[in-house]
Specification:
With about 80 residues, the chain is of the alpha+beta class. It is built from three helices and two strands. It has a domain of about 50 residues. A two-stranded antiparallel ribbon has the order 1-2. α2 packs across α3. The longest helix has 15 residues. It is elongated and about 50 Å long. The model has no long low-confidence stretch (mean pLDDT about 80).
């Protein structure tokens, strides 16, 4: 069985999150068409959402569905 984290570490993590440094709910999931639109607005480069999807898959990102049936991208394991 694994060991639990020290009380000191737990307090530091709680302080870090309370200071607003947590990424939980910071940015919602984005769809490929939304990503393509943001990229076009930011850089002027247009790319088809399918091309972006294939590119991200080549970089090691995978497409997984959550328990509610909605898909989400996650970084694949090396």
């Amino acid at each position: 069985m694994g060991r639990s984290y020290s009380h000191d570490l737990r307090e530091r993590v709680v302080g870090f999150v309370e200071a607003g440094h947590s990424q939980v709910e910071a940015t919602p999931d984005i769809t490929m068409p939304e990503l393509a639109a943001r990229m076009a607005a930011a850089t002027g480069m247009k790319a088809d959402p399918a091309v972006l999807s294939r590119f991200l898959c080549r970089l090691g990102f995978t497409y997984k569905k959550g328990a509610d049936g909605v898909g989400m991208r996650t970084r694949g394991r090396p």
